[in-house]
What we know:
This protein is mainly α. The chain is 81% helix and 0% strand. The protein contains 16 helices and no strands. Helix 1 (4-24) runs parallel beside helix 5 (74-93), helix 11 (220-248) packs parallel to helix 15 and helix 13 (273-308) runs antiparallel to helix 14 (313-341).
Amino acid sequence: MITEKRRFGISWTLMMTAAVVIISANSIFVPATSYIARDLGVAEAAMSSNMVFSRLGMIICMFCFAAFADLFTSRRLAQAGLVICTLSCVLSAVSTNIYMFDVAQIIEAVSRATIMLTMQLWIAGISNKDNLASRLSWYTIIITISPILAPSVGGFIAESVSWQYCFIVLGVLSVTMLVLFSFFRILERTEQRDPSLPKAKFAPMQTLREYRQVIRHSPLLPLNFSLAWMAWFDGGFMAIVSFLFVDELGLNAAELGGIIVVYVAGAFAGRFPIMYIQKHYGPRATFIFHQVIVLTATFGALAYRMVTGHHDIIEIAMMMAVFGFGFSGMYIYCLRFSMMIDPEKKSVYTSLFNALYSIAALLGVLSIQGLYLGGFSSVGIFQTLAATATVFMLVGTVLHLNALSKLTNNII
Length: 412
């Protein structure tokens, strides 16, 4: 007989592995973006359209998620995400034009949004106030394995065979995970629903009213204003990374995969300090620490260009690794706060938090398209992103600290 501890371990492994597989679909092809653009016969601005549609798909799914999150178990939601991911991989691999590829990325975005929100709510359901931040940190540490390994693996596959095989590999992994989920029932949330209460129902209008209430009366927006601009910068950077390093700085897809690993390794390392700082020094010190790290990266990139007159491969890679370090810690910090504002409405706050985060990243991608159409080079766009994000993150510092001072101790 499986003990509760062992069941938790197996559940954790299955849920994390499913998340790693699905999230890999968003990053495995990044080093080969310029190759895909060439094969599909489109320019840089048109190729970045898949990121726009992908973000839109995520945003729509996230807004809708809260309306049906309580209707299904985490296991069913994870299985749905894997099925959708498999479909996306098949369509991506057989794409012959940009329109098919865009549709595939929309489908992939739905699977990614589903698994991200399912994971966050699953962890919240089996955690309490004291261990929520640490478990969210370990979750994000583990899923960071995906964007560390996926781009380097994807770059190698694209150079060795073709970019289509990136999606074939992921499709096989998705099917494998579906089989494993069919043989094991994961541990679900620990809190038991009061049997005297009516069963949860699909109520989209009620969800919309709750969204409006949260936006108008909760501290969610000022707390996350700075994070939103980090997401804007990150979304924009990922939209130009292949063109910046491959077309302008002379790398190939495999070499770019290594550069992306450096960036994501910074994000991986950034998951660790928050657990210690939050516990020993409190939220204000945690926020300031990560905010200073991020601003050091963006301001450092601006200063480097000002002094030398150019950007280069090593400088951008190192600056983005520093940015990733601060950005990843800030994400966990803000997510934990968003969940604790009203524990009875975790699904609403989680969905809205992630939707707003994705809207900011989408706006970053749209900004890139506009700058490309305006004749900016990839290097010029990087400079513009860094300058704009720096200004608005400073504004976000004031807003966050002001909102933090008004929160009650039971939230903090």
